[in-house]
Amino acid sequence: MRALLLLCAAWLLGAAAPLATTPAPGPLRLIGGRGPGCIAGAVRLPDTAPGLQAIRTGKSFFWGTPATIDALLLLGRRAKAAGLPDLYMNDISAPRGGPFPGGHLSHQVGLDADVWLDVTPHPLLPVAARETLEPPSLVRPDGRGVDLARWRPEHATLIQLATGLPGVDRVLVNAAIKRQLCESVTGDRAWLRLVRPFYGHASHMHIHFRCPADQPECGPDFAPPPAGDGCDASLQWWFDQLDAPPAPPTKPKPPPPLPAACRAIMAAP
Question: What is the pTM of this model?
Answer without folding.
Answer: 0.91
